[in-house]
Structure prediction request, 739 residues.
Amino acid sequence: MSVSRRRLLALGVAVPACSALAPGAAWAAAPDPASAPSASSAPPERRVGDRPGVRVNLAHLDFLRDTVRPAPVPGHDTYRLREEPALGALWTYAERQSDGSYRRTGGGERDPETGHYAQGAYNADDMARAAVVYLRHWRLTGSPHSERAARQLLRGVCYLQTTTGPHAGDVVLWQQADGTLNRSAYPPETPDPSDSGPSYWLARLVWALGEGVEAFGGAGGGSGLGGPEGELAHGFVQFLRDRLELALTALERDVLSRYGTWETADGRRVPAWLIARGADATSEAVLGLAAYVRAGGGERARRATARFAEGIAALASGGPGVWPYGAVLPYAASLSQWHAWGAQMPTALAVASQVLGREDLLRTALGDAAGLTPELLTAGGCDNGRLPAPVDRSQIAYGVDSRLRALLTVAEAAGTHTANAAGPTGSRGRRGAPGLYPLAALTAAWYFGANAAGEPVHDPDTGVTFDGVSPEGGINRNSGAESTVHGLLSMLALASLTDGAVRAGSVPPLAVTSAEHDGTRVLEAEDGELTGAAKVQRPDPAATEESAYSGDACAALREGGAITWTLPSEAPGPLLASPVVNLVEDRAAGRTVWNSRGATAGSASLDHGTAGPQGVSAVPGTLTPVALPGTFAPGGRLRARAADVGKHALRVDAVLVRPAVARLVVASPYGGLALLHNGDGRERPATVTVPGSGRTTVELYDVHARPAGRRATATGREVHVAVPAHGFAVLRREGRDGA
Prediction:
């Protein structure tokens, strides 16, 4: 699915049903048996067992692959098209059949006369990412099958790149099964036509080409062949270089030409030189550019890597206790959204820091990985949309994989930096970030049952990764290209773990029997007790490309209007609270006064007029969580009262409430793994029961995922821990309960 469509879906904006396969949804288009053959049985298994229990099975991805013989089209060509007219392609979706097999299909309604889909059968986004899977598998295992598959997919996706005219270097997104290019799909993409400007699919082409140059170039041009075969192999590497340089020309023309130019989004200065204004899209291009630099790509590629990385890093926001807790925002036109899908910003910054020697980029990546991840995990995992409340809590492999590989890549880069750094060992960044490894294990556990469904969503016997899990625990058992690709990228990352990463606790529980968490809960404003000049309001629209009101509603408060909530009573200790309010550009807007009997900080005043000029954001104002000082008693009453209200009513969307020490406890047949995250600015005690029967190992980490004390062991089921301020604790216990 294209990201422009996904961004709208994540924000709750209505999109025609044919444009995407959302988790839990059924696909409406009827596939044609001729163009979408049934998978009656899985192809022969291909696996790697580099790590015990971790298997990388390419069978389902192989099933999604196809060949296409496109007719000659001006401006579209690829490597040896005339000599080898069959190019690699990849079906976009795969529908699960009643017998458990899968049927391949394209995007949108299918015309029974032409066989064409409203979007297409194949798309550049998925073909490029699938090529990355095969490249990485080939480099890990030496598999000739994966080498051939990568070569064919790279040839196929390069055919989609426009080579002439004012948009040379850009990419057509959709292709029909007969090879016809569909420049303008329905519903329309941005840009439209799809090769008329910078796009997510251009960024992903750069990712695939960069890793392709590195892989095929590192293999001596391919398989180490000499003579005519060797010449062909070296010719392919040069072709990939040429196409990446063409893509870079397009990026320089349409994006990097704005380097150093800043825009405004609700008063914040944001970079104007990101692809489609997205740090998420740009991060995927940086993955390819960094690989190209490693392969000798030259000063031009190095400069582009640095400039894109600087733009990504400029969107780092918040910090300890302040939303979004150090994360890099994915979209320059919104200060109000973060989503797990495509959030490869810390991964890109970490690899850029290594090829450029830029410690500042690594610090930003670490702030994201270590600051946000414990908050996500204890609240239930890698949500599709925090906008800024967790409006879309569905979860997909694209989001989980992005977070998993970010944790592993940043941890590796931080460890490498620690090993190579000179200077005092106590300086920031010098001790590595080993705490990211157990966070990676807990993130990866989603595939094996640590999700809302309580079931595995990746099948190592077939290579299938399901298309998503709904907040209510429903599983979309379709398995399209995107889910398959990112599930396999995760398995490859786990299969590639170094011995040090394994020792640091990065191997996930591969069979999860239960996963319990008690993190962030949402108290809707419209569900509170409204008194005085307070009423429920349903903004129209409730969701834009900038943000979304939780529950499609909010409370509007005039002078003296108030809302009262009853705080959760089952919390194991004091609570933290962050109201989600709409801040506007009006110094006379007014304020809300917040108080609760038993609160440690007394009353707090929240100014609603602190936003800046709208600029490039979709609507004036910014929907923002603002942390209240101190802690609150479980079961207490929290009250907000409007004061000094100006021309317009003050909007309150919700209150985000969580225990000061939130937890995630995962049980497997072989023991338990627990995470305690302290969201408060001072050390907090906590007690947790860890499944298992042996001794419990306790590891403490600070806000930067650095060790915050000596490893300790404890006996008994209940373990008492003092969790560092804004840090976290990881507890492991082996052995079956009762064993």
Observations:
- The mean pLDDT is 90.
- The chain is about 30% helix and 20% strand.
- The radius of gyration is 25 Å.
